[in-house]
Design goal:
The chain is 39% helix and 17% strand. Helix 7 (162-170) links the parallel strand 6 (153-155) and strand 7. It is globular, with a radius of gyration of 17 Å. It is built from 10 helices and 8 strands. It has 266 residues and is of the alpha/beta class. It has an 8-stranded parallel β-sheet. The protein has helices at residues 12-15, 18-27, 43-52, 74-80, 104-120, 132-141, 162-170, 187-195, 225-236, 240-254, and strands at 2-7, 30-35, 56-60, 86-95, 124-129, 153-155, 173-177, 201-203. The chain has one domain (2-254): TIM Barrel (Alpha-Beta Barrel).
């Protein structure tokens, strides 16, 4: 089986065709998916999907790209995360690629998410782009990692260097690879994927974005996460079944879920 550890099926282009999306998940052996929150106004839609479908989980958080949106407090995130289908805090982190100027508000938002994660014990879902140095620094300063008593988490849609991956793994984080790793132009990322131990790896789509080869350029969806696993199997020269099993085990372990889909701590 496969698990899509990061998607946005609440976005309009996917939510309008959910029956087809779930059918394709089943056809491709994708048993579960994590629908990730990007802002608070749309959070109720994310939670509704998780409540309605047993194999869909959700997170709560505000993406670093969302500048003109209600700012979450740590207390907001803690309160909203109490629902049993909310298994992570995020998508959070830093992104210096799209936005310019004084981005201290991004860094402060990131810190509040880390503090909520530490309080709730729910793992972080971290986005970093053109900001890896500050991302790792703030993770360390706020004690995000399991090495510092935090809940750990995942570096989602990873595109950074092996040095950044190792720094995150040293803090107990997992590294998640998306369809980008299948792109011919992603040679450096492919080298990182070879080096990251399978025991520290997740797979994702980030749907509706970043469809893997052979669907590159088309709309992505959770059922296509199988292609990421197939590529990693070839890249690391290991059986596909092992990639599927280990990345699924990693997902359940990170998010403290039992195999039947309930919280392992309840």
């Amino acid at each position: 089986m496969y698990i899509d550890s990061h998607c946005h099926i609440n976005f309009p282009e996917l939510s309008a065709r959910l029956p087809d999306i779930f059918r394709k998940m089943e056809e491709n052996g994708v048993t579960h998916a994590l629908c990730v929150s990007v802002d608070l106004p749309e959070f109720p839609q994310v939670l509704e999907l998780a409540e309605k479908y047993p194999n869909i989980y959700a997170s709560v958080g505000v993406h670093p790209d969302y500048e003109e949106t209600p700012e979450p407090s740590a207390d907001d995130l803690i309160r909203l995360s109490r629902h049993p289908k909310i298994i992570g805090i995020g998508e959070t982190g830093l992104d210096y690629y799209r936005l310019e100027g004084d981005l201290e508000w991004q860094r402060e938002r990131f810190r509040r998410h880390i503090r909520a994660s530490r309080t709730t014990g729910k793992p972080l879902i971290i986005h970093t782009r053109s900001a890896s140095e500050d991302t790792i620094r703030i993770m360390r300063e706020e004690g995000a990692g399991t090495d510092a008593g935090g809940a750990g988490g995942v570096m989602h849609c990873f595109t950074e260097s092996l040095q950044v991956a190792e720094a995150a793994m040293d803090m107990g984080f997992y590294i998640s690879f998306s369809g980008i790793v299948t792109f011919k132009s992603a040679k450096e990322l492919q080298a990182v994927a070879r080096a990251v131990p399978l025991e520290r790896m997740l797979i994702e789509t980030d749907a509706p974005y970043l469809a893997p080869v052979p669907h590159r350029g088309k709309m992505n969806e959770p059922g296509l996460v199988r292609h990421v696993a197939e590529y990693l199997s070839t890249l690391k020269d290991i059986p596909l079944e092992r990639v599927a099993q280990q990345t699924s085990d990693n997902f359940f372990k990170l998010f403290k879920l039992s195999r039947c889909g309930t919280n392992a701590e309840t």
